[in-house]
Write a structure and sequence with these properties.
The chain is an alpha+beta fold. It is built from five helices and 19 strands. It folds into four domains: 56 residues; 108 residues, conserved putative lor/sdh protein from methanococcus maripaludis s2 fold, CATH 2.40.420.20; 90 residues, Helix Hairpins (Orthogonal Bundle), CATH 1.10.287; 84 residues, Elongation Factor Tu (Ef-tu), domain 3, CATH 2.40.30. Helix 2 runs antiparallel to helix 3. The longest helix has 47 residues. The protein is elongated, with a radius of gyration of 53 Å.
């Protein structure tokens, strides 16, 4: 400690040197702590880096692959259409009039010849009676004409005898003959009037019969368009009064098939139909007809296919929308590949500028051939593939039948690329620069 008797200046000098020494000691301690902390952090970072290096995952495989499998391949054609009865008859009215009575309703079962409805026959009955009276008058006219003709025939014979005896002139004979000819013509006209009147009577009787509407077939009434008291007019065309379906246990679906698929269909192929009302239930059927008449809607061409469908429980109803699946071809226990393998094309290599290098186009293949890419080296990070040409058959949209070709069951066929140097990486590099 400084001497209290020393001068103040001496004491200040000794205190300053002591403070400097203390500050230097403290500074060395601070830097030593910082160096230790840095060393600890560096050791931790090195340890983490070493751990990550030792536990790093293996390189991502460049290719997504698949192998040849075995199973059934079913080629199908799918379309939609409306459910209809096999036989459906529209029952109309051939005469105009007021509906007097209706004897059936919706869902009524009818037999051939059952009375469905009646039109008021009052006016038609009056027409029949009028025609009968006209016929009676025509028949009476014929009787009168016959009697007159017979009288003139006798008069003509008398005049001819008198003329022979020179008691009558030739003029008298000619006059009587002319009267006889007129009477004969009147008889012919009266006979023709009878024929005409009888035809009118038959016409009016037929119209009277048409006032009673009968069922033309056995079936069920699926539509009734009239009520008692309603007036129907049959001036230009017969109004539809009822629609009768003959047998709902056998239905048909009129499906619209796309023009790209119509060539695959043929009569007799098995089909399956589903409707929204009975989800999960399948109705079996067969293709009965593929029509040649095209249907064009907004530039889309379709063709109508008639599929007969069994409906034993009467679940299918006319007018329902059905989805029809027709089995066109089938391969049992076939070797098959996923369709992704047939669509795959490798990413072309890139140049130093990151742009794809020009590649020679692959030669086209004939129908029934396809090109796939097979992995020849599966070493992670060094994968290689090469093309193979194979013979293919039918497809179900997911897999394709493999018929033959340079491809065994153990081969790994490329379906996609996961190479980080592929297209996605190239896009990333292009965005960076």
């Amino acid at each position: 400690m400084p001497d209290p008797a020393s001068p103040p200046a001496a004491r200040r000098s000794d205190g300053s040197s002591l403070e400097r020494e203390l500050a230097a000691v403290e500074g060395r301690h601070v830097w030593r702590g910082r160096l230790i902390a840095l060393a600890v952090l560096a050791s931790l970072a090195g340890g983490v880096a070493l751990y990550r290096w030792k536990t790093r995952p293996p390189p991502v495989a460049r290719f997504v692959t698949a192998q040849v499998t075995r199973g059934d391949v079913v080629e199908t054609v799918q379309s939609t259409g409306a459910v209809q009865p096999l036989t459906q008859v529209q029952v109309g009215a051939q005469i105009s009039g007021r509906i007097a009575r209706v004897h059936v309703d919706y869902n009524s079962f009818v037999r051939h010849g059952d009375l469905l409805a009646e039109i008021d026959p009052t006016l038609l009955g009056a027409t029949v009676e009028s025609n009968r009276a006209q016929l009676a008058a025509a028949e009476a006219q014929v009787t009168r004409a016959k009697a007159q003709l017979a009288t003139l025939e006798v008069s003509l014979a008398r005049a001819e005898r008198l003329h022979v005896e020179s008691l009558a002139s030739q003029a008298d004979v000619d006059q009587v003959r002319g009267q006889r000819d007129v009477a004969s013509a009147d008889l012919a006209a009266a006979s023709a009037q009878i024929v005409q009147t009888r035809a009118q009577l038959v016409y009016s009787r037929t119209n009277l019969a048409y006032a009673r509407v009968y069922a033309p077939i056995d079936g069920i009434v699926i539509s009734r368009n009239i009520d008692p008291g309603q007036t129907v007019a049959a001036s230009f065309q017969a109004p539809v009064l009822f629609v009768i379906a003959q047998d709902l246990r056998n239905m048909r679906v009129l499906a619209d098939v796309d023009e790209a698929d119509v060539g695959k269909l043929a009569e007799g192929m098995t089909a399956e139909a589903t409707v929204d009302a009975f989800a999960g239930e399948v109705f079996r059927g067969k293709v009965r007809q593929v029509r040649y008449n095209p249907n064009t809607v907004q530039g889309v061409v379709t063709y109508s296919a008639v599929i007969d469908v069994e409906n034993p429980d009467l679940k299918l109803r006319p007018g329902m929308t059905a989805t029809v699946t027709v089995r066109t071809r089938e391969a049992k226990a076939a070797r098959k590949l996923p369709n992704a393998a047939l669509r795959f094309k490798p990413t072309p290599p890139t140049g130093p500028d990151g742009k794809p290098l020009p590649q020679a186009p692959e030669p086209p293949l004939p129908p029934g051939k396809a090109r796939v890419w097979v992995v020849t080296d599966a070493t992670p990070g060094k994968e290689k593939d090469e093309p193979r040409v194979i013979d293919v058959g039918i497809t179900d949209g997911i897999g394709t039948e493999l018929r033959s070709g340079e491809l065994d069951d153990a081969a790994k066929v490329v379906t996609d690329e996961t190479d980080p140097q592929g297209a996605d990486a190239k896009k990333s590099r292009s965005r960076m620069f």
